[in-house]
Amino acid sequence: MLSESRRELLARRLRGERRAHEIQPRRAGEPLPLSFAQQRMWFLAQLDPGSVEYNMAITVPFPGAVDVPALASALGALVRRHEVLRTRLVPDGDGVPYQIIDPAPERFDLTVVDLSGRPDPAAATKAWLAADMAVPFDLAAGPLLRATLLRAAAGEHVLSLAMHHVVGDEWSMAILQRELGGLYAAFRDGTEPRLPALPVQYADFALWQRRWLSGPVLEEQLGFWRDALAGAPVLELPTDRPRPPVRSTEGSMIEFVVPREVADGLRAVARDAGASMFMTLLGAFTVLLGRYSGQEDVVVGTPIANRNRAEIEGLIGFFLNTLVLRTDLSGDPTFAELLGRVREGTLAAYAHQDLPFEQLVDALDVDRDRSRTPLFQVQFNYVTDDGDEPGDTMRPVRMSMPVKYDLSLSLGEVGGGLAGAVQYSTALFDDARMMRLVGHLQRVLAGVAAHGGARLSEISVLTSVESADLAVWCAGDPVVPWSGGVGAQIAGWAVADPDRVAVRCGDVVLTYGVLRRRVLGLAGRLRGLGVGAESLVGLCVER
To answer: Which of 36, 187, 207, 491 could lock 70 by a disulfide, CB 3.0 to 4.6 Å apart?
Structure first.
């Protein structure tokens, strides 16, 4: 047994080590660097100063009468409580950005916009909110939070809260809404607001992060990610248009509902595998991505709250991080076996979530390509919600919106069921293709829910309508065995049915026989010019 003196010495050392890793309030006058996440966001803002891609907003309905002075006082108290809401990012003389925290205002100037006199106040409110989201923030001039109370009718108000991502994230939005509700009720009722004191502020976290994430800690984190992502491929999904040289943020979204029986089946698969629903749904999504891309090594990104320290749980600020998850589909495993791989990779990534994504991009020396996002182009997210039951409709709902990636899938629990949304770049994908993707995803989820032990090759992607169409298409046609490539398949059709139409473009129609003769003629011409294996041949064609 340890003596009392040695136990006390050990306790002091443990307390000292724990304190060394805790986030402490900064000393007065210390320079305030940006967090790593803020630094990347600031850099992106310099590349595209007028961008609204990282604007965030929530709307809070206020039925009945609104006490405007009480609401303004609540907003003022919120800004005083969270320094980040009155922070600006300003470059110094050498161009290095740092944080400036402005003094807390004596009163918050809440703008009130009256739309009740419009012919259609509801439409006018929706249009106003859309226009406000299109107004960029100036990170140096600030403020980076704006609040407007919209009056749609007598006793019908909506509070619009917009902020730049550099000072908040989704977790922050929930804190903001919750604390604002408590503060408003207190000021309206004339009682003392009761909110627990904040142990630290966001600037304290940024300062701590810069000091902590260095030396051996940084090397251990970087070592893991270098090994995990060594040789990771680019996910090549089929697109409807060529990728533009600069990534477009124009996009759309399709919302859908997963049937309750399928959701219950997926939960059972997760329980049997000792996995989470996040892992199970991610595994099913990678199966679909593998089918679409023809790749067995699939890389996707996923957001993580990164609130793994007690001191920052109640802070508004930009803590959100992004993890890069790599899934191995090779060997035609059963879905249960695949889920084991996903579980292992996900848990390892969680254990190394402290390395900011922007640090990872820099450390891996990723080629800068403005046509696509670094490291991954498809994102997956799983969220929980205590909201209402999802609707019964299975008909997707389309809406336009800015997007950050080629393709994003979000799935989550809603009222005991599962609801989903696919966001996609309209510069790359047509609505029709994404509608089919939603149908294919539904088929994969249903297949996994029904047969979690099935091999990946046994999980059907085609919808019932597509399967029926395929059966009709194949019913009277000669069957040409697939022999490994499109060229070989065309050659097979040219022998089996040379008069069958292969290409139709306007008034031009080519049969498989004619197409093959033209291909062979072109090939002979190229060989005569010295073109051989691995030669590069330029094509001049219309987009």
So the answer is: 187
Q: Where are the alpha helices (DSSP H) in 451-511?
A: 464-475, 486-496
Contact yes or no for 447/454 (Cβ under 8 A): yes
pLDDT for 249: 86
Give the other-Cβ count within 10 Å of 185's Cβ: 14
**How far apart, in whole angstroms, are the C-alpha atoms of residue 442 and residue 110?**
45
Q: Identify the three-state secondary structure at position 533.
A: coil
Using CA atoms, how far apart are residues 206 and 37, in angstroms rounded to an integer?
9
Domain with CATH 3.30.559.10 in the chain: 36-206
Give the homologous superfamily in CATH for domain 36-206.
Chloramphenicol acetyltransferase-like domain (3.30.559.10)
Q: CATH 3.30.559.30 in the chain: give the residue spans.
A: 228-465
d(CA 284, CA 295): 15
Residue 95: DSSP 8-state: S
In sequence order, the 6+-apart residues with CB closer than 8 A to the CB of 152 are: 115, 116, 121, 122, 124, 125, 158
The fraction of the chain above a pLDDT of 90, given in percent, is 64
- For residue 189, what is the enclosing H or E element? helix 170-189
Strand (E) positions, 417-488? 417-425
Nearest to 466, CA basis, from 500, 434, 443? 443
The token pair that represents 198 in the structure block: 């904040």
CA torsion, ordered 493, 494, 495, 496, to nearest 10 deg: 40
pLDDT digits (tens, 9 = 90+) for 134-151: 999 999 999 999 999 999
Of the candidates 394, 419, 425, the one whose C-alpha atom is nearest the C-alpha of residue 407 is 425
Question: Distance from CA of residue 118 to its chain's centroid?
Answer: 37
Higher pLDDT, 112 or 527: 112
Q: For the domain covering 228-465, report its CATH number.
A: 3.30.559.30
pLDDT in tens, 437-491: 999 999 999 999 999 999 999 999 887 777 766 666 666 555 555 545 566 667 7
Residue 384 has pLDDT above 90, yes or no: no
Q: What values do phi and psi take at 334, rounded to 5?
A: -70, 160
| Confidence bin at 523 (pLDDT 50/70/90) | confident
For residue 306, what are its two tokens? 């990164």
Long-range contacts of 525-529 (CB under 8 A, 24+ apart): none
